[in-house]
Design brief:
The complex is a heterodimer of chains A (412) and B (324). Chain A is an alpha+beta fold and 412 residues long. Chain A has ten helices and 16 strands. In chain A, strand 12 and strand 13 form a beta hairpin. In chain A, helix 3 packs parallel to helix 4 and helix 7 crosses helix 8. The radius of gyration of chain A is 29 Å and the shape is globular. In chain A, 30% of the residues are buried. By secondary structure, chain B is of the alpha/beta class. Chain B contains twelve helices and 14 strands. In chain B, the strands form three sheets. A seven-stranded mixed beta sheet of chain B has the order 3-2-4-5-7-6-12, with helices on both faces. In chain B, strand 13, helix 10 and strand 14 form a beta-alpha-beta unit. Chain B is globular. The chains are: A alpha+beta (412), B alpha/beta (324). Chains A and B meet through helix 2 and helix 3 of A and helix 11 and helix 12 of B.
Chain lengths: 412, 324
């Protein structure tokens, strides 16, 4: 009995997903539980398992297709089984309804005429422009070749000439007709990925809705660097601790002392979260994701390190799980690997704050009235001023620095 | 001004002209004793008698032929065709005789007659009783073709038609007799061959006449609510066609939609669009769209009939297309 596989709902507010790749193609065998396809959502690419065993009889979506949740994407069954194309939810309503044998009305044909340009250059030299547009262009000496048409089929119409004249668009004066195919560097247009769009939406929201303020603190990193070196000497390859692992633990412990910064604004109330789940920004192609270390205050450094490493690896290979990236109560963004002195991060709504960490650098410092080299790292916290204020943020940073500068406290 | 129906306007025009000029008389099927199939000549039989309100046999060629003959010897007949669909039974008289006699006889005779005919669909009268063949008659030089869309125009145009020394086909609409409109109290005439802007606007030119005017005005209101101001130009006369106001409007808006109840092919829209391209080519910013009846014999079934006739949403959609 053939089974229909539908586009799964992989997140609370997922409405559609992109079929990135068929892992099992038409005609191939698949077992229940094996990965059938890779689906990209707003946040990540997820491997989707087959809910049936058998042969992939039909794939109903092509690579790159955007498919609404619950729409059939494949049929699995026994080879040779007859399958009907599952009926699309919205059948062509108009044509069927009221007119049995009448020929398709020209009004409907006209209504389905495509409204926009086909994109590429027209046939050699021919420019689509209305008679009116041509006349105005002629009278006002506008080169039609330099005007972008916004009429049906990319036709240049009056408003396009007027826009060109009012200087909204770039324009070449008509001296001699210029050949359209000149070899010169051209602009490149790339559509925004779903991830980039999602990031964009959230960051705009943060910048519009959240009144940010910032506090920067320079941390003495000498003791931490030394402890890290000693710890890593005792750890096998592939399990060495990073500076970030120490940061996660230090931030988590400091947040226990400042629950107001481990919080979210909910209407007229501040929701102080029971767990401290520290998010870590991980760069991926075309954007970034925040992987979450839950209850970071209660985990030893080694466990934090293992978890964050594994999640970051899943993110980079496109196999992130929803639980990897959900539930963060406070985020850390670390550009330390790029010799960045300091930077300012944008809060991830609905968190109360985010910590931007620069590189640990050897810089001249003043101690006991003398200038000598020392390891310093700058961290800047961005805080939602609706929930907290400068004094609290400064005290948090003081507490955080306390943990980082006395790293043995992270082991206790 | 008084507010009267289309029926009353036509009736008043007839009565005023019959009072004014004793050579005016009416002939047709059921015009006398019955008072007219659409009650336009109710009371006329009693008022003017059988000599001037003549009931005829069911023979359209005889009706029109007799009218031509009467006109040639100095009368001013107003012949009525119960529906314009019956005009085909008198086609030779309407397009071959009446419009051509003055020309072919070198001016020795004129044919000062009016043919009143009722056209249009929407009353479930079936395919052969619901046509709008206006364009066919407008094709012939020598025949004037008039089709008003308001009571004011109907009264004024009919009076002008009766006073005209040329044969005039006066086309009314089967579903417009109840349409009410303001009409001047004092005597007035509306000239034949003059189009009129019934509603000013700046975004698009909607050219129409008769029933199309009623639909276009409603569409214009809908469009106005969406920020689109349509200028509605009422042709009023199909032949001779007055393109003046149409072109003046088009040079302002650069986009036009023609609305007619007849079929698109070879219709009024074809003529208007061609003239726009010929005479205002450099003002054309989009192709002219024609809203017309679907290219089928008009169905009897109520839903199908309404689906085949041009409706307000069709006009709104066409306007949006030309504005794209």
């Amino acid at each position: 009995m053939a089974e229909t596989i539908i586009m799964p709902k992989l997140g609370f507010d997922m409405a559609e997903g992109t079929l990135v790749r068929w892992v099992r193609a038409e005609g191939e065998q698949v077992q229940k539980g094996e990965v059938l396809a890779e689906i990209e959502t707003d946040k990540a690419t997820v491997e989707v398992e087959s809910s049936a065993s058998g042969t992939v009889l039909r794939t109903l979506a092509d690579q790159g297709d955007v498919v609404p949740v619950s729409t059939p994407i494949a049929i699995i069954g026994e080879p040779g089984e007859q399958v009907d194309e599952p009926t699309a939810p919205a059948a062509a309503g108009e044509e069927g309804a009221a007119q049995p044998a009448t020929p398709p009305a020209e009004a409907r044909e006209a209504a389905s005429r495509p409204a926009r340009a086909e994109g590429g250059a027209p046939e050699a030299g021919f420019i689509k422009a209305s008679p009116l547009a041509r006349r105005i262009a002629r009278e006002r000496q506008v080169d039609l070749g330099a005007v972008e048409g916004t009429g049906p089929g990319g036709r240049i119409v009056r408003r396009d000439i007027e826009a060109a004249l009012s200087g909204e668009r770039e324009l070449k004066p008509t001296a001699a007709p210029k050949p359209r195919l000149e070899a010169q560097p051209s602009d490149e247009r790339l559509p925004l990925t779903r991830l980039r769009q999602a990031i964009g939406r959230r960051m705009v929201e943060a910048k519009q809705q959240v009144p940010h303020f910032y506090v920067t603190r320079e941390v003495r990193m000498g003791a931490l660097m030394e402890m890290r070196a000693r710890a890593n000497a005792a750890l096998p390859e592939g399990e060495k601790l990073s500076v970030n692992d120490f940061l996660v633990k230090a931030v988590a412990l400091a947040l226990r002392e400042f629950p107001n910064l481990n919080a979210s604004l909910d209407g007229e109330q501040v929701l102080r979260h029971g767990s401290v789940n520290v998010g870590n920004a991980v760069a991926v192609e075309g954007g970034l994701l925040t992987v979450v270390c839950r209850d970071a205050d209660r985990k030893p450094l080694r466990q934090i390190s293992r978890e964050v490493r594994a999640m970051a690896e899943r993110v980079r290979s496109g196999k992130v799980r929803p639980e990897d990236i959900e539930g963060s109560t406070f985020s850390i963004s670390n550009l330390g690997m790029f010799e960045v002195e300091d930077f300012i991060a944008i809060i991830n709504p609905p968190e109360a704050a985010i910590l931007a960490v620069g590189s640990a650098l050897e810089v001249p410092v003043v101690e006991d009235g003398e200038v000598r080299p020392g390891w310093r790292m700058k961290a800047t916290i961005s805080v939602d001023h609706r929930i907290s204020d400068g004094a609290e943020a400064a005290r948090f940073m003081q507490s955080l620095a306390g943990y980082l500068e006395e790293p043995v406290r992270l082991m206790l | 001004m008084s507010r009267i129906t289309m029926r009353e306007a036509i009736s008043q025009a007839l009565m005023e002209e019959m009072d004014r000029d004793p050579s005016v008389f009416i002939l047709g099927e059921e015009v006398g004793v019955w008072g007219g199939t659409y009650a336009v000549t109710k009371g006329f039989y009693d008022r003017y008698g059988a000599d001037r309100v003549k009931d005829t046999p069911i023979a359209e060629n005889a009706i029109i032929g007799a009218a031509i003959g009467a006109a040639m010897v100095g009368q001013r007949p107003v012949a009525e065709l119960m529906t314009i669909n019956f005009a085909f039974s008198a086609m030779d008289y309407i397009v071959n005789q009446a419009p051509k006699l003055r020309y072919m006889f070198g001016g020795q005779f004129s044919v000062p007659m009016v043919i009143r005919a009722v056209g249009g669909g929407g009353r479930q009268l079936g395919a052969t009783h619901s046509q709008t063949p206006d364009a066919i008659f407008a094709h012939f030089p020598g025949l004037k073709v008039v089709s008003p869309g308001t009571p004011e125009d109907a009264k004024g145009l009919l009076k002008s038609a009766i006073r005209s020394d040329d044969p005039v086909l006066f086309i009314e609409h089967a579903t417009m007799y109840q349409v009410r409109g303001e009409v001047p109290e004092q005597e007035y005439l509306v000239p034949i061959g003059v189009s009129k802007v019934q509603r000013p606007g700046r975004d698009v030119t909607v050219v129409t006449y008769c029933k199309g005017l009623e639909l276009s005005m409603k569409a214009a209101d809908e469009l106005a609510a969406q920020g689109i101001e349509a200028e509605v130009v009422d042709l009023r006369t199909l032949r001779p066609l007055d393109m003046g106001p149409v072109l003046e409007s088009f040079r302002k808006t650069n986009r036009a939609v023609v609305v007619e109840e007849g079929w698109k092919s070879y219709g009024v829209g074809s003529e208007v669009a061609s003239r726009i391209y010929e005479e205002a080519f450099d003002y054309v910013d989009a192709p002219v769209r024609r809203v017309a009846q679907k290219e089928v014999p008009l169905p009897y079934n109520r839903s199908l009939e309404q689906a085949a006739l041009p409706q307000v949403p069709d006009i709104v959609a066409a306007v949006k297309e030309v504005l794209a």
